[in-house]
Amino acid sequence: MTDCKDNSAQQLDDCWNRIGVWSTGRASCPELENVVHCRNCALYSAAGRKVLDRPTSDDYRHEWTERFAIPRQEENCKTQSTLLFRLGDEWLAMQSNCIDEITPLRSIHSLPRTEGTLVKGLVNIRGELKLCVSLGAMLQLDKAREDYIEDREIHERMISLSRGDQSFVFPASEVYGIHHYSEDALQASPTTVSRSKSSFTTGILEWRDRHIGVLDTELVFYALSKDLQ
């Protein structure tokens, strides 16, 4: 550092470190009886202004000149907000703006004449009965074949979602939370993805060494509504 800054530092009387509240021994400054704490003292405030008003060194100005001279790189600011969750062995993502609530598992009250459909029954969400559907069945996903033993406890959840006048609830094996990604991070679905699942996804995201299928929200709601007709 330059001599200018060193001289400025040497001229400061840091009484707050010697006899004030930050001293290694007992605070002995008589002004503390009136101001209670050093930060309320006029000397402490004056010292702060002196540090801020000190002349800047040539090295400091040179360093920041170089930083501001670096051309700013254009970044893709278009990002998408999604909720990551697992159904069986499959990790999926859905636009977060259609997610109303995530709750612990609730009792599902079955309905007559719903066999062979996606409808599992009705669930009570904050006093309101909502239709519970099987998103895994719609995507033709198999039951989990892996053992999910991690350093944390895994809880099944229910996800409540709505779009316009449509509202559904579906159970999920696990919920991670909100994840943001840039649009250019979305990859095309590989040919190994099942045809049913692929038809409902807009692409694949790489996340924590996993491949996340990003669901087409419009198509999901359309398919659920069509099955109920």
Assign the CATH architecture of the largest domain.
Beta Barrel
CATH class of the largest domain: Mainly Beta
Number of helices: 8
Low-confidence stretches: 1-9
Strand content: 25-35%
CATH topology of the largest domain: OB fold (Dihydrolipoamide Acetyltransferase, E2P)
* Domains, number: 2
* Counted beta strands: 10
> Termini, distance in Å?
76 Å
- Per CATH, the superfamily of the largest domain is CheA-289, Domain 4
Largest sheet strand order: 8-1-2-10-9
Please identify the structural class as seen in this structure: alpha+beta
Order of helices and strands: HHHHHEEEEEHEEEHEEH
Quick one: biggest sheet?
A: 5 strands, mixed
Helix content: 25-40%
Based on Cα principal axes, name the global outline: elongated
Descriptive report:
InterPro entries: CheW, CheW-like_dom_sf, CheW-lke_dom. This is Chemotaxis protein CheW. One of its GO terms (cellular component) is cytosol. Pfam families: CheW (PF01584). It is found in: Cytoplasm. The longest helix is centred in the first third of the chain and has 12 residues, at 42-53. The chain is 27% helix and 31% strand. Residues 1-9 have low confidence and may be disordered. It has 2 domains: 3-69, no CATH class; 79-228, OB fold (Dihydrolipoamide Acetyltransferase, E2P), CATH 2.40.50. A 5-stranded mixed sheet has the order 8-1-2-10-9. Strands 3-6-7 form a 3-stranded antiparallel sheet, with no helix packed on it. A two-stranded antiparallel sheet has the order 4-5. The chain contains 8 helices and 10 strands. It is α+β, with helices and mostly antiparallel strands.
